[in-house]
Amino acid sequence: MNINANSFHPLLREIQQLAAHMDQNVLAGPLLVRSASPGFAPSNLQLRIPNFFDDVFQSDIECGASAPWYMVEGASPKECRYALIHALQHISLPRHLLEHLRSSIDSAAIDEIQLGKLVHLLSHLPANPQLLSQVYEANMAAAIPSGGPIPGDFYTPASIVRQIAEMLELKEGSLYDPCCGSGAMLYSTALSLPHGEQLSLFGQASDTNTYQLCQINAILHGLAVDLGGQPADVLNRDLQNGRYFDYILANPPFNLSNWCEGLSPCDERLKYGLPPRSNANYMWLQHIIHHLAPNGRSAVMMPNGSLTTQQRAERAIRHGILQDGLVEAIIALPPRLFHCTRIPCCIWVLSKARVPGATTLLVDISKANLSDNHGIAEAPALVNLVIQHRKGLLHGKTDWYAVVTPEEIALQNEMLSPNLYTASPPMLIEPLRQNRWRFMEVLHTLNGMLSGLSIVNHISCWGNLQPAVYWKQEPLLRRYHVLGGISRKMDDTDSNTALVDVRTVIHHMFLPPLLEKSVRATSKEIETFRIHPGDILMNRTSETVEELACCSIATAELNAVYGSFIKRLRPNNASPLHSGYMAAYLRSAIYRQEVRKVSPVYTTRANMNLHRLQKISIYYPDASMQKQLGETALAVSQFYNTCRDEALRKLLRQFIQLLIEQYVTYPILCSQQEGVDKQ
Q1: Phi and psi at residue 17, in whole multiples of 5°?
Q2: For residue range 138-153, what is the model confidence (pLDDT) as tens digits?
Q3: How far apart are CA 162 and CA 158, in angstroms?
């Protein structure tokens, strides 16, 4: 059977299917023996070597490099297990690894038929270390139990690792991964270098299982790695202490708690302070900075929360790192990039070659497209951006990156969320202007469907009304004062006070009279958190920015309170803005733009706090237009809630969306553009 480089893929798939159901250590045996026999040819092309179980092994001259593999391939199904153990002893493996594999294979429950099939297929696989490592890594993925510990490096797509390597401009030198897991990031990076260039590989694995995985994976890739001689928790026992590396890549476990069991307060890695026991993110950053050579560079995967955390110790450490000029770039990544977590991630690019006062590149590609293999489609531009900044050739800001000074970062409380610094993408006026015909079409259809009903008067009048020309702008909190909600577990039954929750706020422009949730509340709590007409209920947290800081307006006195994930905005003067108008405005694209401007790239959940609310502006027209918009929005909303005709409900939703677009968003954009033109 002749196999060439272009025809082995079906064979490889068959091998992977068999391997997926095997114990990792049983699979590692034939893969390692096969990798140690690069000159192997199928058995029908070889002379038989009898008595391969004899104590005296054939000489190297007679057997050649292929002999260990022949021992396995030539064994009967019943003898294959023992042939495998015997063959492993004749290839160069660390003693502890050999003992581990021999013990595992000897005690494992093995399907002899399946093992025999695997050996037969491997016999015809081209001699290529990367093919064997591909089989092993596929088996690793299948072996990780749901909810079990996952080596983060293994689940970092190889395409992303290559892009990061290009950012760091890797050349010959030393490469270190302090949480190397299976070694996938190390090996993928090492193999991406141009032919002739080599990296010395170093790492540390936290437990025996990943330590063995990393060693086996290295051998299958044809590489050598220094893991410090044994497994150990790197944060508490640094096996590479005293060594400094040219490059460091890491995808550490995010938000690791209870991590500092054996850490000394005098540990020299703690230059910038001791991170909180509840979160090791800033310990990983300090560990990596400590191990960088004088001109070393590093790229570290971190959760987005590391960019904006306000925990006192973490803020102090971030301040020190920034003061020393170590942060070369921050890159906010698209969601769903890593298979093992939904937590939004970023890359910290760190460099010891920089000086205090140097600028930092902040890049927001959280909305970027992903390629088919989970790489970033815009990667070439991203890599070029980082390199241009390193050369001092990049300045200014766009809607996806900003080059900022330490002073600019200080003005943002040293938060490193890129979208706090990038330019807001412009909202285009022309598409909204062209949408006018669609608004008139929906209006005409509704006039016909609602003929004879009182609601039609609130709709038909907009056929002749022109948008307001003059708009005022002021801070949101100049008009409203804010109070957080009741901190109490909500129930569905056996509670006496209705409760407004996040779901209600997100899905209702106006608060409904009947609420699904309830809570046990004291009379004082009811008095404090009772909802009055004109109150704005805003959700302060959400999984996405598009559902963050949504607002629902109270139109009547409610015997209800609101939960701790809600903020109440209550009008604070004698001439408030029309509450119905505010319901419409707070569902507009203009308001969503204000929310996005002040919200950092998102952690596990997006959050709107008082500091961010203080930066939000609102826009409003004259009182007459406010009243017209507000009364229409309320009337249509009330009619919609009683309507059972789904086609009509769909048209009513479109009408409200287009009404807000044409009479709020569009005229405000025109007003803003006029102000720019006048300047």
Answers
A1: -65, -40
A2: 777 666 544 444 444 5
A3: 6
pLDDT at residue 59 tops 70:
no
Vertex 118 angle, CA 112 and 119, to 5°? 90
List the strands of the sheet with 497-500, edge to edge. Answer: 517-519, 497-500, 560-562
Specify whether the CB–CB gap between 532 and 554 falls below 8 A. yes
- Report the pLDDT averaged over residues 243-264: 91
Token representation of residue 605: 């959940």
Q: What is the DSSP string of 149-173?
A: ---TTTTS-HHHHHHHHHHHT--SE
Lookup: tokens for 458: 């609130």
Residue 430 and residue 560: Cα distance in Å, rounded?
A: 44
Please identify which residue in the block is written with the tokens 């954009």: 669
In this predicted model, what pLDDT tens digit does every residue of 444-477 receive, in sequence order? 999 999 999 999 999 999 999 999 999 999 999 9
Element (H, E) at 26: helix 24-35
Q: What percent of the chain has pLDDT over 90?
A: 51
Q: What local confidence, expressed as pLDDT, does residue 89 receive? A: 84
Is the CB of residue 125 less than 8 Å from the CB of residue 34? yes
In the chain, the N- to C-terminal Cα span, in Å, equals: 78
Q: Are 525 and 493 spatial neighbours (Cβ–Cβ below 8 Å)? A: no
**What tokens appear for 95 in the block?**
């003693």
**498-536 per-residue burial string, b: 16 or more CB within 10 A, e: under 16:** bbbbbebbeebbbbeeebebbbebeeebbeebbbeebbb
Please list, in sequence order, all residues whose beta carbon lies within 8 angstroms of the beta carbon of residue 10, skipping any fewer than 6 positions away.
none
CA–CA distance, 663 with 322 (Å, rounded to integer): 45
Angle at which helix 24-35 crosses helix 208-220, to 10 degrees, equals 30
Give the count of beta carbons closer than 10 Å to the beta carbon of residue 346: 25
Query: Distance between CA 473 and CA 619 in Å, rounded?
Result: 5
For 548, the token pair is 């963050």
Mean pLDDT of all residues belonging to the chain: 85
CA angle 634, 635, 640 (to 5 degrees): 100
Write out the H or E segment, with its range, that includes residue 313.
Answer: helix 312-323
Other CB atoms within a 10 A radius of the CB of residue 205 amount to 29
Nearest to 220, CA basis, from 315, 125, 307: 125
